[in-house]
Amino acid sequence: MLLENKVVVVTGGSRGIGRAIALASAREGADVAINYWRDNDNAYGKASAVESIVGEIEALGRRAIAVEGNVAERDTGIELIARTVEAFGRVDVLSSNAGICPFHAFLDMPPSVYETTVAVNLNGAFYVTQAAANQMKAQGTGGAIVATSSISALVGGGMQTHYTPTKAGVHSLMQSCAIALGPYGIRCNSVMPGTIATDLNADDLSDEDKRAYMEKRIPLGRLGAPDDVAQCVVFLASDRARYVTGASLLVDGGLFVNLQ
Ligand code: RM4
């Protein structure tokens, strides 16, 4: 068990990649605190997913709590960590995963779309990382922070001019936090998912031509699944990666390197 008796915090943990990270962590022996944002959790016209993820983790014999809040607000991260410590006594791992990607053209993008995306994806990652790192430092036993950046930190998207800079920022945040937090034994790394089939891009990939184009560009021949990313997050969070910090791991089926 790679995360035996560890306490793992996952932001955006009710759906998609975050849900997979929460489940994978529980399967590896962790207790899990899940952050979810009510507006986003219900944004896809489906019933809230948070009750089911808590039940699935408890069915694995691990403990779970769910804490609602928008990570864009600094107090959300502070409360999330406080509620986690109240429930489980400590924080060992943060998966800073929460993110949105409302695809939109650049020239007519309203400020609200840009500002909300930056606030959730980048400001949110900063605030939650800061809250978790302060708790880890106070505990005095190190810790691991894994942020969900993206292939989009490295390449662009015509409908993602608001989004890709936030993913580049998350990648850079982990690099700088690796330096700032290394003295406390806190490792900071990022995963860079490629095109993973989740709610985040369900609308975008409902276009069959777009989906076929993406699948054709991926050397492994398929879109990623959330657990493909979760397994890499578990690795970076575990002691197997004890000497890895400031790194980033592409989880993209070869998409990034595939020019021709
Ligand atoms: C990722 C990448 C994928 C897109 C998601 C929403 O960073 O750009 O292609 O589907 O974001």
In short:
It contains 9 helices and 7 strands; from the N terminus they run E-H-E-H-H-E-H-E-H-E-H-E-H-H-H-E. By secondary structure, it is of the alpha/beta class.
Strand order of the largest sheet: 3-2-1-4-5-6-7
Q: Could you tell me which ligands this complex binds, including any ions or cofactors?
A: beta-L-rhamnopyranose
In CATH terms, what is the fold-level topology?
Answer: Rossmann fold
Task: Write the CATH homologous superfamily.
Answer: NAD(P)-binding Rossmann-like Domain
- Sequence stretches where pLDDT stays below 50 over 5 or more residues: none
Topology, number of strands: 7
The number of helical runs is 9
CATH class group: Alpha Beta
* Tertiary shape: globular
Elements, N to C (H/E): EHEHHEHEHEHEHHHE
How widely separated are the two ends? 40 Å
Q: What oligomeric state best describes the polypeptide chains here? A: single chain
Domains counted in the coordinates: how many? 1
Structural class: alpha/beta
Query: How confident is the prediction overall: mean pLDDT?
Result: 96
Can you name the CATH architecture? 3-Layer(aba) Sandwich
Give the percentage of residues in beta strands. Answer: 5-15%
Any idea what the radius of gyration is?
17 Å
Helix content: 40-55%
Keywords: NADP, Oxidoreductase, Rhamnose metabolism
Protein name: L-rhamnose 1-dehydrogenase (NAD(P)(+))
EC number: 1.1.1.378
InterPro entries: NAD(P)-bd_dom_sf, SDR_fam
